[in-house]
Structures are given as C-alpha cells and as structure tokens.
C-alpha cells in the first residue's frame, strides 16, 4: 500500500501556511509573529526527531525496545500529571504509578486477547494513546482530589472526629473527584464520530484504508481509552487518598485552595 | 510553671495532662511549653484572645493534631499509645461552626454510628432540646442554632466520656445557647467531662469549675470562675 501522503516538497510548500499566520500576526500587531515562527520550527524539528527515532526503534528495537519506549513515556506522563497536582503529598510517585498501572493493564489486555498485534509499529503508537489518556485522567483526578481535600477540610475533620477512619471520612470526596475525572473520557466516547473524527481513524482514512475498516480500529481505541482513564483515575485516587492522611487518621496540611497551579 | 500542677484544686482525678507541650505551624509558635492538667468529671473552660492557642490545644486532645514537642496524656497514658479511632469516640469534639454531613437529620445522627436506632436517635435530639419529630426532616432548612445542636447530638451518639466544645454558642440565639449549656451540664452530671472554649464570662461562670486563660501560646492564669 502506498498511502497518499505529502512529499518533502509538499511539506516545504506547506510552510506558506505558516507564513500566512505570521503575516496576519504581524499586520495585526499581535506581537506573536516570533512565537508562531518558533512554534512552527519546534513542531517540525520535534516531529522529525521522533520520526527518525521511531524508524530506528521499528527496525531494530523489537518488543523489549517498545516496552522501554513505553516506560519512558509513562515516566514523562507521571511527571506532567504529578506536577499539576503540586501540593498533594507524594504527587509524582502517585501519578507515575497510576499511569503505569493503567497502561500495563490496558495494554496487557489488548495484547493477551490478541486485539492488537505485537509489532513494534503497533505497540508504540497504541501505547502512546493509552499513556496520554491515562495522564489526562490522572491529572484531573489528582487536581480535583487536592481541591476537594483542601476545601472540604471541615467536613472531613468532622467525620474523623466521629471516629471514622480516614478512608471512610474521605470517601464522598474521592467519589466526587473520580466522577469529575471520568466525565471527559465518557463524553468523548459518547460523541465520537458526531463531533470529532478521531485521530486514529482520520490517519487510517488518510492512509487509504476503507472507512469501515478504520472504524474497527477506532472502536477499539475508544474502549481502551475509556478503560485507561478509569483505571488511572481509580489508581490515582486510591493512592492519593492514602497519601493525604497520616497514620493517626489525620488530613495532612495542604496549600490553600487558591487554584494557583500554573508556574 | 510547675506551680500550677501543685495547685490543682479539687480531688477530681486528672483527665488530661499536658507536659511541656509545644506546637509550631510554619514559623509560628502556637503553644509554647504548655504544662497543665484538666480534671475529670467537671467543665474546664479555655479562655483568651483569638490566636492565643485555644483551638490548637483543644485539637491536641483528640489527636486532630499532635504536639511538636512534649506530650499529652489521658488518664496518665500518652495519647499516641491509644487507638486513635477509639480515642475520638471517647473524646468527642464539636467544632465552632456546625458542619452537617448528610441531607437528613436521622442520617446525620447515624454518620458515625450507622446502626443507631430511631428511638436512640430521638433520645439524642431530646438531650439537645430538639423535638423528636425533627428526625424525618432534611438538614438544609435548619437554623444555625439547630444545626449546632444537631452536631452536638451527633457527637453524643458514640457515647463519649469527654466533650470538647470549641465556642459552641458564639453564633447562636439565646434559646440554642441555653440548650447547649444544659446539655453540657447534664453531660457532666452523668459523669462526663467537658473542655469548653468560651469568650462568654457568664457562660464560664455558669458551667465551668476551672478556667485556663491562654495568651500567646502560654497559660497565664488558672483559676476558679469569677
């Protein structure tokens, strides 16, 4: 199969689109021309580098190399999600463990049931989708948990004062955070195809695959993203809820719920 | 500082003893080497300006906080040697602002005691001078005074031996304030002990048999109520 993708000359020609964006920014004095140029250059360089590395991995690494690649993605995703939840005790290890558990379980199920092939060129992109879905769910779960715990301290302590153990004192707040974290994954599962044509399906169609074949892949992708989000959110919530309390069933001190999680 | 351990008045057994208790939060010293004793079977009032360490001291007594240095004992046994969940059922704390946890009065009373029967629940309401007919009501429509009394009844559900009350009547109407005081008095008459934070000298005179005045993390005076 020879997919209808642009040639390198075509890629160079598409720079005209960047030039158009820069021209608009410059004419309107948005002071964004420089930033747009840098963003476009970065995108080109990053994708070229990833393409070259993927080519190497696909040709030489084998399944062990793919697993190593996934592990690095999990570590990076754990850092990103953990940093979102700064102020939460043990945020980084909790986030990393959540993404890792969700990725291992979802990927393992797909491979064991033979849903996807064990080829490196399949495992890495599918794994990437799972990791990023798990990362998003983890970040929302941990952020919401931190906000819930800080804002609901009086209610949590009222339950602790009744002699309830930490997990029961925190359960209503953990459920609220989990519901919030899973809404995006559920909504995008509900509306797939209606509002957006998802990436995997778009890619397959562009590459010349019949739409009826492309949707089979997309259905699997949606189901696996749902599972990855649910597993990541649940693992993150369990681990974080544990980290929020000390051995004497006390809610640890937390930064004020001021919503200052930007750098 | 040792002076007042010697001067502990009545013949009541010692309920809580604090030995050189220090609490720091960030760079602030909230309690500075506090040593004192709180007798059993009576009401001890903690008074002092805001920020003097009253609530900090109260939260040490059911281990909602731990001291950075020193120790707190209940009947001579350090609190960390006790099961903390059992301790909190034995030593119930009612916060200054009422926090309701459920939508129904009966559920509220069952929050810490899921097996509480309706008759016992009605009895708890009676203890805080609320009508038993309130059991079926929602908690959303309760007044501040009713909510605070419900929180007190909820704390009594576990059958505690000690009540820690953090300014329980500061925001209440006089009817509710009187009801809370009556509950505290009958609790003591039934053999319980109360530690009360209060700004109301009339109230401390009516129910407390010892007043500990705090200022800047120190106990400045211990006396009988005026």
In brief:
The complex is a heterodimer of chains A (263) and B (226). Chain A has 263 residues and is an all-alpha fold. Chain A has helices at 8-13, 15-27, 33-60, 62-84, 91-112, 120-151, 153-161, 166-191, 199-206, 211-244.
Please give a structural write-up.
The complex is a heterodimer of chains A (263) and B (226). Chain A has 263 residues and is mainly alpha-helical. Chain A folds into two domains: 7-60, no CATH class; 62-244, no CATH class. Chain A is 76% helix and 0% strand. Chain A contains ten helices and no strands. The radius of gyration of chain A is 22 Å and the shape is globular. Residues 259-263 of chain A have low confidence and may be disordered. By secondary structure, chain B is an alpha/beta fold. In chain B, the strands form two sheets. Chain B has a six-stranded mixed β-sheet with strand order 6-7-8-3-9-10, sandwiched between helices. Chain B has a four-stranded antiparallel β-sheet with strand order 2-1-4-5, covered by helices on one side. Residues 1-9 of chain B have low confidence and may be disordered. Chain B has one domain (3-223): P-loop containing nucleotide triphosphate hydrolases (Rossmann fold). In chain B, a hairpin with a 2-residue loop joins strand 4 and strand 5. The A-B interface holds A 154-155, 157-165, 248-250, 253 and B 25, 62-66, 80, 84-86, 88-89, 92-95, 97, 99, 101, 111-113, 151, 154-155, 157-158.
**In angstroms, what separates the terminal alpha carbons of chain B?**
22 Å
Class per helix and strand makeup of chain A: mainly alpha
- Label the overall shape of chain A: globular
CATH top-level class of chain B: Alpha Beta
Average pLDDT reading of chain B: 90
Note the total helix count of chain A.
10
Biggest sheet details of chain B: 6 strands, mixed
Assembly type of the chains comes to heterodimer
What's the architecture of chain B, going by CATH?
Answer: 3-Layer(aba) Sandwich
Query: How much helix is in the residues of chain A?
Result: over 70%
Largest interface comes to: A-B, 15 and 27 residues
Helix content of chain B: 25-40%
Compute the average pLDDT of chain A. 90
Q: How many domain units of chain B?
A: 1
Q: Specify the biggest β-sheet of chain A.
A: none
Q: Provide the domain count of chain A.
A: 2
Give me the number of helical elements of chain B: 8
Strand fraction of chain B equals 25-35%
Provide the CATH topology of chain B.
Rossmann fold
Q: Low-confidence runs of chain A (pLDDT<50, min 5 residues)? A: 259-263
């Amino acid at each position: 199969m020879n997919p209808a993708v642009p040639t390198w000359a075509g890629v160079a020609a598409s720079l005209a689109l960047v030039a158009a964006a820069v021209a608009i920014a410059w004419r309107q004095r948005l002071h964004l021309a420089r930033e747009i140029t840098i963003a476009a250059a970065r995108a080109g360089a990053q994708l070229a580098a990833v393409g070259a590395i993927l080519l190497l991995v696909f040709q030489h690494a084998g399944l062990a190399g793919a697993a190593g690649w996934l592990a690095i993605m999990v570590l990076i995703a754990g850092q990103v999600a953990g940093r979102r939840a700064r102020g939460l005790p043990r945020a980084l290890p909790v986030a990393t463990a959540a993404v890792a558990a969700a990725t291992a379980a979802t990927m393992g199920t797909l491979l064991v049931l033979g849903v996807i092939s064990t080829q490196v060129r399949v495992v890495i992109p599918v794994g990437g989708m799972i990791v990023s879905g798990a990362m998003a769910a983890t970040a929302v779960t941990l952020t919401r948990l931190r906000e819930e715990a800080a804002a609901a301290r009086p209610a949590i302590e009222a339950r602790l004062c009744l002699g309830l153990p930490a997990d029961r004192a925190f359960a209503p707040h953990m459920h609220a955070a989990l519901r919030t974290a899973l809404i995006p994954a559920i909504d995008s599962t509900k509306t797939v195809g209606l509002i957006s044509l998802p990436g995997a399906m778009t890619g397959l169609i562009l590459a010349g695959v019949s739409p009826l074949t492309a949707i089979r892949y997309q259905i699997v992708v949606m189901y696996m993203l749902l599972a990855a989000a649910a597993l990541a959110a649940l693992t993150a919530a369990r681990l974080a809820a544990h980290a929020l309390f000390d051995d004497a069933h006390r809610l640890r001190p937390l930064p004020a719920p001021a919503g200052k999680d930007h750098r | 500082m040792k002076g007042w351990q010697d001067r502990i008045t009545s013949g009541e057994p010692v309920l809580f003893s604090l030995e050189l208790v220090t609490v720091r939060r960030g760079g602030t010293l909230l309690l500075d080497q506090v040593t004192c004793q709180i007798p059993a079977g009576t009401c001890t009032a903690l008074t002092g300006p805001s920020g003097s360490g009253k609530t900090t001291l109260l939260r040490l007594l059911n281990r909602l906080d731990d001291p950075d240095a020193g120790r707190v004992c209940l009947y001579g046994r350090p609190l960390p040697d006790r099961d903390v969940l059992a301790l909190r059922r034995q030593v119930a704390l009612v916060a200054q602002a009422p926090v309701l946890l459920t939508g129904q009065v009966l559920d509220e009373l069952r929050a810490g005691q899921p097996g509480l029967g309706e008759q016992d629940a009605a009895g708890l309401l009676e203890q805080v001078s609320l009508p038993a007919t309130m059991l079926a009501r929602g908690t959303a429509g309760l007044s501040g005074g009713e909510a605070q009394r419900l929180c007190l009844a909820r704390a009594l559900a576990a059958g505690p031996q000690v009540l820690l009350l953090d300014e329980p009547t500061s925001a209440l109407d006089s009817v509710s304030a009187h009801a809370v005081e009556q509950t505290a008095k009958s609790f003591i008459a039934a053999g319980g002990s109360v530690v009360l934070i209060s700004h109301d000298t009339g109230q401390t005179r009516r129910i407390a048999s010892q007043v500990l005045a705090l200022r800047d993390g120190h106990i400045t005076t211990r006396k009988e109520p005026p």
